[in-house]
Specification:
The complex is a heterodimer.
Chain A (H helix, E strand, L loop, with lengths): L1 H17 L2 H12 L13 H16 L3 H14 L5 H17 L6 H5 L4 H7 L3 H8 L7 H10 L4 H16 L6 H5 L6 H7 L4 H26 L2
Chain B lengths: L27 H33 L7 H6 L4 H5 L10 H6 L6 H10 L1
Classes of the chains: A mainly alpha, B mainly alpha.
């Protein structure tokens, strides 16, 4: 639960940096009350993973390369999809190297895969399993492309969102698509910014109701199941 | 600063990953208020989750700690305490793959946090 609260704070800081405080408030409310967001209050790996992802992306947009690399490495140690952060770090580093002419930004993409590699040694073929998962459900690709075109984000954040949403949407072997899509939480920043003042409260009320209903249903099923 | 969401066009949308933000960081007071707002929002969402768990427990007449979500919420799920399975399960294809959890850093941290 502490990691979930910290992840929410980091999302607020990221949204505030990318947009403004008002958008940050809106994005955090959506994040906390999304239907699958009840996992943030439970002992699942999501909260810790989101915290590290948020720290990495915030460090990238603030050009704190060492922090970004360490956070990405730790995220890879928590979940294998943290490997996507390596691409985000590489994208941001190349842009920064071109802009400043210094090689210091390269430290982020060099450190980023350090967590996934030792983790791969503890279990068998995690990267291969992600690759194999990505074969199915072609019909979801259109949705992924639409999301990327419709809602522009800072380049490193966009790379992470595209990679994470792509893995979730194209996978044929996941048990809960909304829960995995929650990892693309930075997409809530442009959503919060583009929703009108009239629409936003309705969307927030709907997501909060759905979250309560989903957790209620999950609890009942778990209790009533043999 | 234009706070209108409707009027902001694509050309005005910042792409902060490419260039540093021009107007700099907000005052510390604004950031402190933001953090308090976030903690209030997250706390409300968490309380709502707990309330739903308690309500579901009353409906079914069972203990709050009796369900799988409640067990994990209470930190008593087997993964943090016992770790993930040591052996690759029998079977082939997706079935065998989906039975493997792969969050090696997570049980280590939660186990240490519970001590």
């Amino acid at each position: 639960m502490l990691a979930g609260a910290a992840a929410s704070v980091v999302l607020w800081l990221l949204a505030e940096h990318v947009a403004d405080a008002r958008t940050a408030n809106r994005a955090v409310l959506l994040f906390c009350f999304l239907p699958p967001a009840f996992v943030l209050s439970m002992v699942y790996s999501e909260a810790l993973f989101f915290l590290l992802v948020g720290l990495c992306l915030l460090a990238l947009v603030r050009e704190r390369w060492l922090v970004a690399g360490v956070a990405a490495a730790l995220a890879g140690l928590v979940r294998p999809t943290g490997l996507v952060l390596t691409l985000a770090c590489a994208w941001a580093a190349v842009a920064a190297i071109r802009r400043h002419g210094s090689w210091r930004p390269a430290i982020a993409p060099l450190l980023a895969p350090a967590g996934t590699q030792p983790a791969a040694g503890l279990q068998r073929a995690p990267v291969r399993s992600v690759h194999r998962d990505a074969r199915g459900h072609r019909g979801r690709r259109g949705l992924a492309v639409y999301l990327l075109v419709r809602w522009p984000l800072p380049a490193p954040v966009l790379v992470y969102v595209a990679g994470t949403a792509g893995i979730a949407l194209l996978s044929s072997n996941i048990t809960s698509l909304p829960r995995y899509l929650l990892a693309a939480f930075p997409v809530l920043i442009p959503v919060a910014r583009q929703l009108s003042d009239d629409t936003y409260p309705i969307v927030l009320a709907a997501t909060a109701t759905l979250m309560a209903t989903l957790f209620w249903t999950t609890s009942l099923v778990a209790w009533l199941a043999p | 600063m234009n706070l209108s969401l409707k009027r902001r066009g694509p050309a005005e949308r910042p792409r902060a990953g490419d260039e540093p933000r021009p107007d700099g960081d907000p005052p510390d007071g604004g950031r402190g208020r933001g953090v308090r707002f976030v903690l209030l929002a997250f706390g409300t969402a968490s309380l709502m989750t707990v309330a739903m768990a308690v309500a579901a427990a009353r409906v079914t007449g069972r203990s709050v700690l009796g369900s799988s979500p409640a067990r994990t919420a209470a930190g008593t799920s087997p993964s943090p305490s016992g770790g993930y399975p040591q052996a690759v399960p029998s079977g082939v294809g997706d079935q065998a793959q989906s039975t493997l959890a792969f969050f090696p850093g997570y049980p280590l941290l939660t186990r240490r946090g519970r001590r």
